């Protein structure tokens, strides 16, 4: 049985980051809502309580009975989690005189305490809280302080329970990874979870789950569905059929290139050219949500039509990954963001669902792909929206607009590769704007389209910063697009970060 660390989510923006740090330490973990702890499970090695936007004394605050966890499991409370443990035990938590946010340095720390083993003197940490622990019960001991926070970390004597008011999961906490590693050691974790172990256990699990059943999988050309396909092919071989639908809104030559890659991997793939169908359905539609729904319905209809041609299919596989699941369900159980991979199955398909990657982050999916021996151009492929260029062409869709978007995008992406910038960018593309502007080409006045270049850096797309690409590079791309793409006379660069903007424009 796979051992795991449970992270109870109280609504912190950095809960996913805690999970990523634990996974990077070769230990499997899962994020669960604060009130969904799996009592009775024999595979849980320890518990981490996340931060929260609430104060522990708020009536609406998310709370759990920490006493049921203490002494049974090693427990680490982070920020709100630390305050909740102390508050439940009779300690005092009060509003700080001023919000404690940003860098701080550990003044005193107990080097004898196993949680702070190998900490460095004056270690930098990251604070982010409006409340502070002002008093702790007698069986608690302070193990770290800063100039402004007397109880920066504590330990409950006689048990494996700790609380830290700073955030070890963020990059700015220099010894944060060391602290989490120390906690995993305290939990007795084997730290043997890896891409190789995931492949072995997942292939064995898929063989047991699917048996001789037939499975159908919709491919998009992206890394998630591609790794999902190779993993399933390793488990069930000829019983997997993949369907790749071309809605005519992919990147230039992408359908042909990706089909070639899939054939090289030995996958059984049906390619469907449905360009005319989608262009007809999208004619005159400018609203972005309507465009998404039309494309989503079209995918389902065409996929279903092709799947019905395959006899005795019982399963639908999807490349759902962990952030898809987390984004799609809040800790209160209400939907906060619909996602194409988590929306459930159309009832008419009458298939069971198989999602072998649903517990992996994007970087872990790529590591699995590497271990499976997949080509780098598939593994390192940047994310691309399901509706494709439909959400990068603002306004209605026409073949001429798609041509302009594809040609401009190809120049941008090819240039990123030529300048060795492609792997430094999380996601990039060209947006065709619904405006035209005056320009001069030769001695003639022009009145043509404007495009925006969009490139961001990120680790998981939850937050993103605009990529600070060299001016010389941007000048070269701008000139090439204007000179080579008929219909464009102006190029702009989007310097918005997420939040408040999103990565895509629609």
Detailed description of the structure:
It is a single chain. With 506 residues, the chain is α/β, with parallel strands linked by helices. It has helices spanning 15-24, 80-88, 176-187, 195-210, 223-236, 254-264, 275-282, 288-307, 322-328, 362-371, 376-379, 399-418, 471-484; strands spanning 4-9, 29-33, 44-49, 75-78, 92-109, 124-135, 140-146, 153-156, 161-164, 214-219, 240-246, 269-273, 313-317, 352-354, 427-441, 444-457, 465-466, 488-493. The strands form three sheets. The chain has a nine-stranded mixed beta sheet with strand order 2-1-3-4-9-8-7-5-6, with helices on both faces. Strands 12-11-10-13-14 form a five-stranded parallel beta sheet, sandwiched between helices. Strands 15, 16, 17 and 18 form a four-stranded mixed beta sheet that branches. Residues 328-345 have low confidence and may be disordered.
Task: Estimate percent helicity.
Answer: 25-40%
Q: Beta fraction of the residues? A: 25-35%
Q: How would you write the strand order of the largest sheet?
A: 2-1-3-4-9-8-7-5-6
Largest sheet: 9 strands, mixed
Rg from C-alpha positions?
26 Å
Tally of strands = 18
**Average pLDDT:** 90
The separation of the N and C termini measures 43 Å
Give the count of helical stretches.
13
Identify low-pLDDT runs: 328-345
What is the topological layout?
Layout: E1 4-9, H1 15-24, E2 29-33, E3 44-49, E4 75-78, H2 80-88, E5 92-109, E6 124-135, E7 140-146, E8 153-156, E9 161-164, H3 176-187, H4 195-210, E10 214-219, H5 223-236, E11 240-246, H6 254-264, E12 269-273, H7 275-282, H8 288-307, E13 313-317, H9 322-328, E14 352-354, H10 362-371, H11 376-379, H12 399-418, E15 427-441, E16 444-457, E17 465-466, H13 471-484, E18 488-493
Parallel strand pairs: 1-2, 1-3, 3-4, 4-9, 10-11, 10-13, 11-12, 13-14, 16-18
Antiparallel strand pairs: 5-6, 5-7, 7-8, 8-9, 15-16, 16-17
Helix pairs in contact: 4-5, 4-10, 5-10, 7-8, 12-13
